[in-house]
Amino acid sequence: MNKINNIDMKKWKEYENIYSDSLWIIDKRDKSSTHKGDYHGNFIPQIPYQLLQRYTKEGDWVLDPFLGSGTTLIECRLLNRNGIGIDIDENILQVAKERAESEIKTNTTLEFLLGDSKNINILNILNKNNIDSIDFVIMHPPYWDIIKFNDNKENLSNTKTVEEFIKSFGKVVNNTTKYLKKNRYVAIVIGDIYKKGEWIPLNTYIINLMQKKKFLLKSIVVKNIDETKGKRNQRNIWRYRSLLGGFYIFKHEYILIFKKTS
């Protein structure tokens, strides 16, 4: 057993369910347990499942600053990890709490915090649980303004420019990863967007941001995307727009893996 997960390297050939390649082809979302795909913009459960298996061990503390409908904390409970989830939307946070806490009870602790991850006081919840650090951070921020989640002006999806979006995201990174242990990992799930005839490479901007903050880029995973809610039943119109506009339709997003080095 190594220091950051429960994988026994003496039996490494037995872990066929854990990905090691950088291309993830997943044909459908996991609908088991209390997972649902009804929240616009949530990610599939297989993503936190894979990341928690690789970068945490049982009993570790996981932080998700963009909790949404609770996918990460549901997986934390299923995999016996402790989890802290933050969301700026009170209504969806309540949904996340209900779904995660309805799982089979384990010895894990789940915390649900309402607030802005750019400035929320995380230390209070760490002190409450008699810990002083986090073992893993997983982030699935808005892809800038592609989805308007609510009218809160502090929501990253309501930023006016891509520069403002990256600056605000950087504040989230500063406020959350300062509690991450050295040599532990941050995973950021992000997709690029197409806006006003231009491909906006959000993943590249975030990589540059994280490297400036002295995080080591360990991996870039490319994951396929099936039809999203926004494109469902619009396959033909998107193909028409693609052929007319000289661009390719998004069928992938990125999972960026960083290591904290200081």
Q: How would you portray this structure in words?
A:
The chain has 262 residues and is an alpha/beta fold. It has a single domain (26-260), classed as Rossmann fold (3-Layer(aba) Sandwich). Helices cover 28% and strands 23% of the residues. It has helices spanning 46-55, 71-78, 90-101, 123-128, 162-177, 202-212, 235-245; strands spanning 23-24, 61-64, 82-87, 110-114, 134-139, 180-190, 193-195, 198-200, 215-224, 252-260. The strands form 2 sheets. The chain has an 8-stranded mixed β-sheet. A two-stranded antiparallel ribbon has the order 7-8. β3, α3 (90-101) and β4 (110-114) form a beta-alpha-beta unit. The longest helix has 16 residues, at 162-177. The protein starts with 22 loop residues before the first strand and ends with a strand. The mean pLDDT is 91.
Morphology: globular
CATH fold call: Rossmann fold
Helix content: 25-40%
Q: What proportion of the residues form beta strands (DSSP E)?
A: 15-25%
Measured on Cα atoms, how large is the radius of gyration? 18 Å
What would you give as the CATH superfamily?
Vaccinia Virus protein VP39
Secondary-structure element string: EHEHEHEHEHEEEHEHE
Oligomeric composition of the shown chains? single chain
- Based on the structure given, which CATH architecture is correct? 3-Layer(aba) Sandwich
Helices, by number, come to: 7
User: Into how many domains do the coordinates divide?
Assistant: 1
- Name the poorly predicted regions: none
For the terminal residues, how far apart are their CA atoms? 24 Å
Strand arrangement within the widest β-sheet reads: 1-9-10-6-5-2-3-4
Alpha-beta content class: alpha/beta
Report the CATH C-level class: Alpha Beta
Q: Can you give the mean pLDDT? A: 91
Total number of beta strands? 10
